[in-house]
Specification:
Layout (H helix, E strand, L loop, with lengths): L7 H16 L10 E12 L6 H11 L4 E8 L3 H10 L3 E5 L11 E8 L4 E8 L4 E4 L2 E4 L8 E7 L2 E9 L6 H18 L10 E6 L8 H6 L14 E2 L2 E2 L12 E5 L7 E7 L9 H4 L7 H5 L8 E6 L3 H13 L1
Parallel strand pairs: 1-2, 9-10
Antiparallel strand pairs: 1-15, 2-4, 3-4, 5-8, 6-7, 8-9, 10-13, 11-12, 14-15
Helix pairs in contact: 1-2, 2-3
């Protein structure tokens, strides 16, 4: 990462941000052994040009991870390009198209990754809702407001698929619950199909699930998706919090997996509080006088949620070879 010759104010802000990152206690990943995976809803990223300071802070946060699912990435990718200039040439982005209607909100889903740790494996696709034949047409009976997006990756000798989405908020909880149930059903059917190329699946996003005992979360997990043990109790370093929103009250952002992946997740996971408090906004933006709401349009109203994944499966494969030879 190269922040370059920044102003004294941005340099001081980066130092303050680094303290907040350190407090999150994110362990370093190890090449060919582990990767740090995150989901981050960067509020309306690209709708309105961010300040120079915010671009540096977003880059610093993203640089803590190896693979990040980005939601609320907008149609205009100019600000992403500014962040990428700071991250450096080893970083790449695979992203979906946007939908222009109000439900789509001109949002994309993207996967940002450091090619030194993670490589793209070839699969990139939006998830379509199941269709039924009506006359000569095949039509969906229910829709995703913003199509989930999935890509295949490889880290070390571990191949896997990541699916990310931003679930509708809407006027009521029923529509959101139905959309989450639709996604759970789609995953269950697709990943049991004999043609699926990999059953190691990570599912992440801003699902707008207020709590783990809420009906929305139950709909999302009704077909077997599981939380990593490290995320059952959400923590910022040594501090337990109730959510990944700025108020730390709601579990909107989740990383889940199919049961086949359970042993791949380490004991490390949590969220990263880059906000601190209203008073701490001045440490990052000393002259701007931002309110909390204005701050969220510079950084975000969501914290990243992250986990560390074990990607070294050589021992497992060698054991399987030996066991097969003994049969």
């Amino acid at each position: 990462m190269h922040h370059g010759d920044v102003s004294p104010e941005i340099a001081a802000g980066l130092l303050a941000l680094k303290k907040r990152i350190k407090a999150a206690k994110i362990p370093p990943s190890k090449l060919d052994e582990s990767i740090n995976v995150a989901i981050w809803n960067i509020r309306e990223f690209g709708k309105k040009r961010r300040s120079e300071a915010a671009i540096h802070y977003i880059a610093e946060i993203l640089g803590q991870f190896d693979l990040i699912g980005l939601v609320e990435l907008r149609d205009d990718l100019t600000d992403y390009g500014r962040v990428c200039d700071i991250l450096g040439p080893s970083w790449d982005l695979i992203y979906s198209d946007w939908i222009s209607d109000p439900g789509g909100n001109r949002e994309r889903v993207g996967f940002l990754f450091d090619r030194r740790a993670v490589t793209f494996n070839g699969l990139a696709a939006e998830v379509d809702a199941p269709r039924l034949k009506k006359g000569k047409e095949y039509l969906a009976q229910q829709s995703f407001w913003r199509a989930p997006y999935m890509c295949s990756f490889r880290a070390g000798n571990f191949d896997f698929i990541v699916l990310a989405t931003h679930t509708r908020w809407g006027d009521g909880i029923e529509g959101r619950t139905a959309e989450l149930a639709l996604l759970a059903d789609w995953i269950d059917e697709r990943f049991k199909d004999r043609s699926v190329e990999d059953t190691d699946l990570i599912v992440m996003g801003d699902f707008n699930t207020p709590a783990l005992d809420d009906q929305t979360f139950k709909a999302l997990t009704r077909r077997g998706l599981q939380l990593p043990e490290s995320l059952r109790e959400l923590r910022v370093g040594d501090i337990t919090v109730k959510g990944s929103n700025l108020g730390k009250t709601a579990r909107y952002d989740q990383i889940l997996h199919l049961p086949t992946l359970k042993r791949r997740f380490t004991n490390f996971g949590g969220t990263l509080d880059f906000y601190g408090s209203d008073a701490a906004i001045k440490e990052l933006f000393p002259k701007a006088g931002y309110s909390r709401t204005e701050f969220t349009f510079q950084l975000s109203d969501h914290f990243p949620v992250w986990v560390q994944v074990d990607t070294d499966i050589d021992g497992q494969r060698l054991t399987q070879i030996v066991q097969a030879a003994r049969k």
